[in-house]
Amino acid sequence: MTKKTFFGAMAVVTAVALTGTALVASNMGFKLNYTLNQAGAGGSATGVRTLALPDNRQTGMVDAKNLMDDIGSASTTSISRYLIGSDVLQPYTGRKTQPSTPFNIAAGEGLVVKMLTTTNYIVVGSDDPALVYQMKASGTGGSATGVNLYAYNYHQTATDAKLLMDDIGSANTTSISRYLVGSDVLQPYTGRKTQPSTPFALTPGEAYFVKMLTTVNYTPSHY
Fold first, then answer.
1. What per-residue confidence (pLDDT) applies to 29?
2. Contacts of 128 (CB under 8 A, 6+ apart)
3. DSSP assignment of the chain, as one string?
4. Global pTM?
């Protein structure tokens, strides 16, 4: 995904700052404690970052409004999902002056959140090891460029970008990118000798932009 394409999306809406502080896990589920930072706090430039919710979320966590209420509507500017057909973000603001319908939250799809004030947020739920995600290439399932915003699983064995690329299938994956909160740009990992880059560590709670060369039905490897 190019920097130009991503900023076309960011022109529609900007979104989340997260810093993980604690993960309590079990075979059944987990509780993750995050500090979601506003602009200027914790190294965040604009209060924007990606967010990965678990496959099985807490009761009542169905749509963007539920998530905004759970984080704190007074502290949250917007929650957005990535539209693969146009490579832009669809925002939900919850504001009467900017009416928008809350979209449903789908398992495996990452979100983008923008914070107005710094908030400690507790994420709870569990992953479904049998769930299959379709990682879509350009021209498949309405995808324009093959970019998917993937909600990284909490119990996934892939711990860095290379391992995630290998798990999806390196021959099928063009790049995996993370969002850098300090500069509002994407840092890609390609795994290609012609474009050397160091694989970055993956963090539970973050979503990653995965650009596919071919469509893959993906079941993450779990521990």
1. 76
2. 55, 56, 107
3. --HHHHHHHHHH------EEEEEEE-SS-EEEEEEEPPTTSTT-SSSEEEE---SEEPTT--BHHHHHHHH-TTTEEEEEEEETTTTEEEEE--BTTB--PPPBP-TTB-EEEEESS-EEEEEEEE--TT--EEEPPTTSTT-SSSEEEEE--TTBS--BHHHHHHHH-GGGEEEEEEEETTTTEEEEE--BTTB--PPPBP-TT-EEEEEESS-EEE---B-
4. 0.88
Chunked into runs of 10 residues, the chain (223 residues) has average pLDDT values of 43 34 54 88 95 92 97 96 97 91 96 94 89 96 98 92 97 97 96 86 94 97 88
Residue 84, Cβ density class (10 Å: 0-12 exposed, 13-18 middle, ≥19 buried): buried
pLDDT at 106: 96
CB 8 within 8 A of CB 87: yes
**Contact assessment for residue 33 and residue 20, using Cβ atoms and an 8 Å cutoff:** yes
Q: Looking at residue 15, what is its pLDDT?
A: 32
Q: Considering only CA atoms, which of 127, 111, 220, 206 is closest in space to residue 165?
A: 220
- CB-based contact 68:77 (threshold 8 Å): no
Residue type, 51: L
Sheet holding 30-36, edge to edge: 19-25, 30-36, 119-126, 56-57
